[in-house]
Amino acid sequence: MIRRLLPLVATAVIALPTLVAALPATAAGQGAATTTSARVATSQVAQRSWSTYRELRSGARAGLRLGRGHVELGTPPVRSFLGRAYEQGTWTSPWTSPGFGATAIIPSWEAITPGQSLVRVMVRARSSSGTVGSWDSVADWSMRSRHVPRTTRSGQTDDLGRVNVDTWVAASTVSAWQVRVVLLRPQGTRARVRLERVGAVASAVAPAPARTSRTGPAAGVVLPVPSFSQMVHQGHYPQWGGGGEAWCSPTSVAMVLAHYGVSQPPAGIPSGHGDAVVDHTARMVYDHGYRGTGNWAFNTAFAAPRVSGDSYVTRLRSLREAEAYIAEGVPLIVSIAFRRGELTGTPISSSNGHLLVIAGFEADGDVVVNDPAGRTNAQVRRVYDRAEFERVWLNASGGTAYVIRHG
Questions:
Q1: Angle at Cα 355 formed by Cα 351 and Cα 361, nearest 5°?
Q2: What percent of the chain has pLDDT over 70?
Q3: Domains along the chain?
Q4: Among 95, 93, 280, 285, which Cα is nearest to 195's?
């Protein structure tokens, strides 16, 4: 699947798991446009999320009720939204400072949107001089997407930054950020639209180091992740990207959910489609603004209610950090890009952006993956050289990973 490939220059985005507060990190990345105005010698990252009663209580609420681990519409005002009357409530996070000059912010969320309800996710930032930017809409998101298309809003700009698909990109650097979620349902309906988690990663990133990370706690650990090939879906559903190389992200998500034994009835997919759950996942994550299935947060938002656990976008600074997840039993979906000859043994010669599943590590530290670009399901499981893989992961996407953890 083709993602937004970034030039391999000095800054980009990386993120760490939510259990890590802020650490230096490395990479030149993909997913947010890089900026050459803010070069850093050592990468930095800070991630923050709100999901518990106490955490959600710390935010500002309007038209919402606070529950145990969620907020939902209470008696909200009615306002116009896309030319229709919608009941609307908002939750706004406190200002969050990463402790360094950040160049990008990537939000992710978990929400329940029954019927025709949806959520709008917004971001704004503050500069070191105290200038506060405007609220920029990153996404309108719903599970169904029939009445209001699930979409991102690239191209919005203000004096501090701009929206690039799933990422808010700073014009220079910013010192603090906020995220806002608007919960919406058509006037007169009773849909229980709920926000269960929202967070974001702020970062400033340096080029990946020349030295490969040392083998860690997952050496010799391989998770039994089922194998699905994206290629057997070539030509399926052009309205959702057309299968084949375009479906690496939903195919990877389908593999991880299958690993957890999560049932996804592929409603609306005709019989005769092998691994119809892949077609179903592609439909459920398709971004009508980006016109693809590779929106990072859309994929984790789709998975969230199915695993009853955490599901979010993050970035890691090395395969050593990825090993901590594998040791915990959590496969990772990661974003790579590579030119011909840069990744030995791959089923495709090159890619401007490709997602696959890290399923484990061999005893010597080489990476065991489920690469959906395999021509058949039997050709999906592969082993990649640790140094090569770490390089094409960190240098292309800043170590982007989907963390989908079963509750």
A1: 110
A2: 89
A3: 22-204 (2.60.120), 231-404 (3.90.70.10)
A4: 93
